[in-house]
Amino acid sequence: MIRRAILLGTGSALPVRAVSNAELAQTVDTSDEWIVERTGIRNRYIAGDDETTASLATDAARAALDAAGVAAQDIDLIILATATPDQTFPASATKVQAALGINDCIAFDVAAVCSGFLYAITVADSMIRSGAAHRALVIGSETFSRILDWEDRTTCVLFGDGAGAVVLGVEESAEGARGILASKLHADGRHNGLLYVDGGPSTTQTVGKLRMKGQEVFRHAVVNLASVLNEVMGMAGLSNSDIDWLVPHQANARILDATARKLKLSPDRVVVTVDRHANTSAASVPLALDCAMRDGRIKPGDLIVLEAMGGGFTWGACVLRV
Ligand code: UT7
Asked: Which atom of ligand 1 is nearest to the CA of 114?
């Protein structure tokens, strides 16, 4: 018998306030034309004072539980991927746990920035397959608007806030056809200086602001994403032509195009939401996944691949039969 973590449901949440490129151009020295041409972004959502990483995560988690038909009390593991927690500690996952009314389960945050959801779902998968957990909530939630330097047009136009969540269950079957088939994670800490926040409790005692050398990150992203995707498909014993949907991290439409070209994947097989949400870091993959599940593009039986790359650098991919 093969024991696998299976996808039971997805959910997402966005702040109330949508901000178009045109609105941004009123306060930042930029233009709709530049942003669309260089990134594909047309809109992002920005959290209000009463919207936080934990509150968005809780809303996304509720939607995922509803879609899965699972009661909050049946969850025994919550992993929240975020680089923008409500507090330095405790983990925002425990705030989500309390908001959902779960009195006892495992709950912790994972910090791998834009790859955070891939790290979180891979840990959840391992814990489910080992028997340490049975029903997991895996969430990516961010309020990057709080760590942007709004004077720096090279970064502030690129990011947005939001959350996405999945509920994972467990299935034992002879074929093991459904569920997470393979996942692979990487990190290379030598690239800290290309994408980072210039503050932290142990260094400056401040939260800090996001800093990025965009062009260098771009180059690494295309190479690393294509390579980890090939790696994980090999681990699953499948080829790229078996992929029904690629659900990539949504940083830049040009990165998505270049990665699809490198992998010889049709652009029609790539879920793109960067135009609507901008880069929501750890939230971007589960947010895109939820959009494509709800609009009916992803159907039961489809083979999907999740992938992301972000600060660290960290990157990873996960193959999943829905
Ligand atoms: O989620 C983690 C992963 N992150 C990423 O994957 C981001 C990867 N990098 C990128 O997406 C792209 O490199 C950017 C979108 C950040 C930048 O695009 P680019 O085509 O590499 O532009 P650039 O940095 O080469 O800048 C070109 C020009 C510069 O002007 P000069 O020096 O040529 O006169 C910039 O000053 O565009 C200027 N510029 C802007 N102009 C209007 C930079 N930002 C803006 C802006 N509005 N917001």
From this structure: 1
Alpha-carbon radius of gyration of the chain: 18
Average pLDDT, stretch 157-180? 94
Q: How confident is the model at residue 174 (pLDDT cuts 50, 70, 90)?
A: confident
Distance 34 CA to ligand 1 centre (A): 9
- CATH, domain range 2-173: 3.40.47.10
Domain 179-321 architecture: 3-Layer(aba) Sandwich (3.40)
Residue nearest to atom 10 of ligand 1 (CA): 214
> Cα separation of 242 and 239, whole Å?
6
Active-site residue numbers? 114, 249, 279
Burial of 21 (0-12, 13-18, 19+ CB in 10 A): buried
User: Do the first three CATH levels of 2-173 and 179-321 match, i.e. the same topology?
Assistant: yes
Across 244-248, average pLDDT:
97
**Residues at CB less than 6 angstroms from ligand 1:** 30, 34, 38-39, 114, 153-154, 157-158, 214-215, 217-218, 221, 251-252, 255, 279, 310
Average predicted confidence (pLDDT) for the chain: 97
Residue 80 pLDDT grade (very low, low, confident, very high; cuts 50, 70, 90): very high
For tokens 């930042």, the residue is 28
